[in-house]
Amino acid sequence: MKTKTLSLIFLLLSATSSFAEIWSIDTCKSVSAEVNASLPMSVDAVTELKNTFCLPHQDGPNFNYNYNVSESIRSIPETQKKVVKNSWCSTPDLLDMLNSLSGVSFIYYTVNGDFVGKFGFSKKDCN
């Protein structure tokens, strides 16, 4: 799982060369299209990354990740949210990306399309 996640991160980071300013919605959509070209991707035994997309926001685009999870998953535990946020807030390249966006969101559905949960955060949440 860690190798696939790191590969996805490097794909995201290589899609754009500058994190010095807020991404335009077009830059975000371009990065999303690059990521989507290699999806779907199995993240672990119960999670598959289906696609990514960008939504406009007044503070810059929001980068969204859509996942499918096993039918046995009924909720996204708080511990998972904390682990993901900590990773984004403490990994320099991810933090640079986060600083270029209004935020990131992670949306989970079962393979049958039932909503499981969603969480997100922005650079303000890293303090």
Question: What's the average pLDDT?
Answer: 87
The amount of beta strand, in percent, is 25-35%
Number of helices: 4
The name of the CATH architecture is 2-Layer Sandwich
**Ends distance:** 27 Å
- Say what oligomer this is: single chain
Strand order of the largest sheet: 1-2-3-4-5
- Overall geometry: globular
CATH topology title: GMP Synthetase, Chain A, domain 3
Q: Please report the total strand number as a whole number.
A: 5
Spans where pLDDT lies below 50 across 5 or more residues: none
* Number of separate structural domains: 1
What top-tier CATH class fits best? Alpha Beta
Along the chain, the helix and strand elements come as HHEEEHHEE
What would you report as the Rg, rounded to the nearest angstrom?
14 Å
Question: Strand count, sense and closure of the main sheet?
Answer: 5 strands, mixed
Q: What structural class results from the helix and strand content?
A: alpha+beta
The percent range for helix content is 25-40%
Keywords:
127 residues, alpha+beta, GMP Synthetase, Chain A, domain 3, 5-stranded mixed β-sheet, 36% helix, globular
Description:
The protein is built from 4 helices and 5 strands, in the order ααβββααββ. The mean pLDDT is 87. It has a 5-stranded mixed sheet with strand order 1-2-3-4-5. The protein has helices at residues 2-14, 25-36, 78-90, 92-99, and strands at residues 41-44, 47-55, 62-69, 103-110, 115-121. The protein has one domain (2-126): 2-Layer Sandwich (GMP Synthetase, Chain A, domain 3). The chain is α+β, with helices and mostly antiparallel strands and 127 residues long. The chain starts with a helix and ends in a 6-residue tail after the last strand.
